[in-house]
Amino acid sequence: MDNLSLFITIPAAVAFFIPIVSRRFRWFPDVITSITTFILLLLSLMTLNHETVYRMGNWFVPYGIVFVLDGLSCMVLIIVNLIGFLVSLFSVDYIEKIYTSKLRYYSLLLLAVTGMNGTVLTGDIFNLFIFLELTLVATYALVGFGCEARNLEGAFKYLVINLIASYFILLGIALLYGKFASLNMADISRLINSTEKDVIVSFSFVLFLVGFGTKAAMVPFHGWVADAYTAAPAPVSAILAGGVIKALGIYVLMRLTYNVFGINQHISMLFIYAGTVSIMIGVLMALGQWNFRRLLAYHSISQMGYIVLALGIGTPLAILGGIFHLLNHSLFKSLLFLNAGSIEYETGTQDLKKLGHLSQKMPLTSTSSLIASLSISGIPPFNGFWSKLVIIIAAIQAGKPVFALWAVIGSILTLASFSKIQRYVFFGKGEKFNSGMIKDIIEVPALMRVSMVVLAVFCCFAGLLLLGGLNGIFGPVVNVLTDGTNLYITRILGR
Amino acid sequence: MVYTLCFVLFVIGLYGVSCKKNIVKIILGFLIIEYSINLFLILLGWRKNGVVPVIEPGSDAHMLVSASVDPLPQAMVLISIVTGLGILSLMVAIAIRLYQRYGTFDITEMNKLKH
């Protein structure tokens, strides 16, 4: 699997094909999107344990655009394409019932996947900005897809906050280019580490931190998360939570801090504090929410806090925990958003007060959401427990027991708010519950069930991936980050 | 000095985006931010009395490098203008639809999501 440009060309080509062909064949967009995303998933699985540098148009390395595949990008690539595939399966019935224009929806979805794949693979910082904008433009349109007042409002808020962040990033890129006259990330890294500390480099790092911190939903840049997730169609919320904030936010932050700028004491402390504050603020704001998806959105902020905390601690064990939590969060948070989508599909509401007694009517949704809830709250033996455990152990080992304590408290509060969901939606009933509403409710269609079951099975057994620890399947991923800047430079520049 | 003016322009745009309540003024703020960054990129490659960066037969490559303008920022600015145009049109489309739904351009009156 050496031709990395396939990850960009396949979805982009199909995205432009869909509007042309599907005017004649109504079934075409459903089938072709699922097939395309499945092919992408297979291709990304084939990249496991590969390390390649693909030069676009055979330009020499610091001058042309390179695509870099290493452990970390491979891992994020698999996450993005897995979520993309399951979301496109789920969308088939969901979009049919609730929204109108399928072909535009699938085109935008594939463009978002293209952008995420590109962001993860590219080794050129301006190219990264272009792919980032591609993903964001596609998701701006997807969030406002319903064109009702609330969809548009969420989309506009999402657009404004993320566009400011994007321009901060572009300014940072311009400053770096003015300083070093290079756009290749490895080359910039070489130049940063061979020259003295400079105020321009620090300033551009701060700009990147603000920009990518916004996309990673880090407190205090989290303002867009709740509105965008609530306004978007449920599968889009799933891909936003499972793919976009991972690939555009936390992945790029990891890459820039560990491989390009190099981590130091101040940045670690900044990450640790930002992570802890994110954990607490996210979970405290989630506790008071009565909208299903709004509650999940605040939990996204909280769970991203764990990953940022692990990045800040920076020992190999902590990074292992952070990366594993990245994978787990994609699995269970997408599953929860898909559950919220199935409930919306059947009942037409997101309000926890109006729902109730769905566990008998929708057994599969109920079971899978129970698994995801236990998983996100860190109950053994589900996957969320293992990654949180590793992060907490790493925090204690690194001599930071106070932050470990905050992480435990955050986890307990998460359990509290998810028991609220289980009680009001599935097993008990809300204040405004009307028994007439759920009389005719049946389980959702087969394809929606398939994607939920697959994610639930992953949630049950993903804990096994931790076997082998630092020498196991996450070994190469952790090595990419712990090796720091030098190995990244040698791998790409070849010297 | 000129670079400082770019930053002033950036901050003016940021003020427009963050402090104004009218959607149209917010969009104008974004345009100002975008132009300030484009101007900054172009100025990075600019050189007084610079020549075109094309090697012709007989011209000295070293002389050319020391006298020519940098072509790469110009390419970057072109790409950035195109993405900016795409986002601008999307923003304007959303603004028009928002006006149809709420009957106003004032963002403080758009608060249906919280209810």
What's the gist of this structure?
The complex is a heterodimer of chains A (495) and B (115). Chain A is mainly α and 495 residues long. In chain A, 75% of the residues lie in helices and 2% in strands.
Based on CA atoms alone, the radius of gyration of chain B comes out at 20 Å
Silhouette of chain B: elongated
Helix content of chain A: over 70%
Strand count of chain A: 2
The CATH level-2 architecture of chain B is identified as Orthogonal Bundle
End-to-end separation of chain A? 24 Å
As laid out across the biggest beta sheet of chain A, the strand order is 1-2
Query: How many domains of chain B, as an integer?
Result: 1
Order of helices and strands of chain B: HHHH
Structural class of chain A: mainly alpha
Structural class of chain B, by secondary structure, is: mainly alpha
**Global outline of chain A:** globular
In helices, the fraction of residues of chain B equals 55-70%
Largest interface: A-B, 31 and 35 residues
Point out poorly predicted stretches of chain B: none
Mean pLDDT of chain B: 88
Sheet of most strands of chain A:
2 strands, antiparallel
Explain this structure.
The complex is a heterodimer of chains A (about 500) and B (about 120). Chain A is mostly helical. Chain A has one domain (about 5-495). Chain A has helices spanning about 5-20, 30-45, 70-100, 100-120, 125-145, 150-180, 185-195, 200-215, 225-230, 235-260, 265-285, 290-315, 315-345, 360, 365-375, 385-395, 400-425, 445-460, 475-480, 485-495; strands spanning about 50-55, 65-70. In chain A, strands 1-2 form a two-stranded antiparallel ribbon. Chain B has one domain (about 1-45, about 60-110): Orthogonal Bundle (Helix Hairpins), CATH 1.10.287. Chain B is elongated. The interface of A and B includes residues 150, 170 and 230 of A.
